[in-house]
């Protein structure tokens, strides 16, 4: 029930109080929720960048179509996904799992071969569609964790991904940006959305009993 109350409380904050900063402890928890997210085959196909430097946040404004949110927020998380699958990337979490669980080194060979047979024959574009979906799972959990901590957040995909990739040098890291999540504290007086009712489709329309 507490989670539902937190989800009722949260909203896509439109105006932040730039004087209020989110503690490192809270930022860490919000990122940790994404790290703990389930992903397809557990491969964690995305990474999270934590931007707190004002000069970088200011550079995000034109990239985010002039949305001042990204400069006024305390931190901006950027969720970036693998630009494609490679043999090395597919193997990486299974090597770690084998080591951490003390399993025989060939434990996941058949499984990873099956994954490689699927992903390595797809185009990078097809693979990015899949890796980006995993980023959305982590993103959702970070939004929920922020709400639980009473930290405001704005889910954002309204930005130029190529420009953000360039700013964060993501290509060299084999990543492409997917989403931004500014974090901070609402401007109680200046946010037009704050007093507005939360609107969702009625349950009877949203839920289809079969
Ligand atoms: C994937 C995604 C992308 C979004 N992109 C933006 C954005 O670029 N700018 C913005 O102000 N809001 C953005 N939103 C916020 C949505 O408009 C908002 O979540 C939705 O209207 C529901 O309202 P609520 O979050 O206040 O409950 C985005 C939300 C999601 C989930």
From TrEMBL:
Residues 8-185 form the Nitroreductase domain. Its cofactor is FMN. CDD domains: NfsB-like. Pfam families: Nitroreductase. Keywords: Flavoprotein, FMN, NADP, Oxidoreductase. GO terms for molecular function: oxidoreductase activity. It comes from the Bacteria. SUPFAM superfamilies: FMN-dependent nitroreductase-like (SSF55469). Signal peptide: none annotated. Belongs to the nitroreductase family. This is Nitroreductase.
């Amino acid at each position: 029930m507490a989670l539902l109350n937190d989800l009722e409380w949260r909203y896509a904050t439109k105006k932040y109080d730039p004087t209020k900063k989110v503690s490192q402890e809270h930022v860490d928890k919000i990122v940790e929720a994404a790290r703990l997210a389930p992903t397809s085959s557990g491969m964690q196909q995305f990474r999270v960048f934590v931007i707190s430097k004002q000069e970088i946040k200011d550079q995000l404004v034109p990239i985010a179509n002039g949305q001042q949110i990204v400069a006024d927020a305390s931190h901006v998380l950027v969720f970036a996904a693998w630009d494609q699958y490679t043999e090395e990337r597919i193997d990486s979490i299974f090597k770690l799992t084998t080591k951490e669980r003390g399993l025989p080194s060939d434990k996941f060979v058949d499984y990873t071969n099956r994954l490689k047979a699927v992903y390595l024959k797809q185009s990078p574009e097809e693979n990015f569609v899949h890796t980006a979906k995993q980023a959305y799972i982590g993103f959702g959990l970070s939004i929920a964790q922020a709400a639980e901590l009473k930290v405001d957040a704005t889910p954002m995909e309204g930005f130029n991904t190529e420009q953000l990739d360039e700013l964060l040098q993501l290509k060299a890291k084999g990543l492409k940006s997917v989403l931004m999540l500014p974090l901070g504290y609402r401007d109680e007086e200046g946010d037009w959305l704050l007093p507005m009712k939360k609107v969702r489709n009625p349950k009877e329309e949203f839920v289809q009993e079969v």
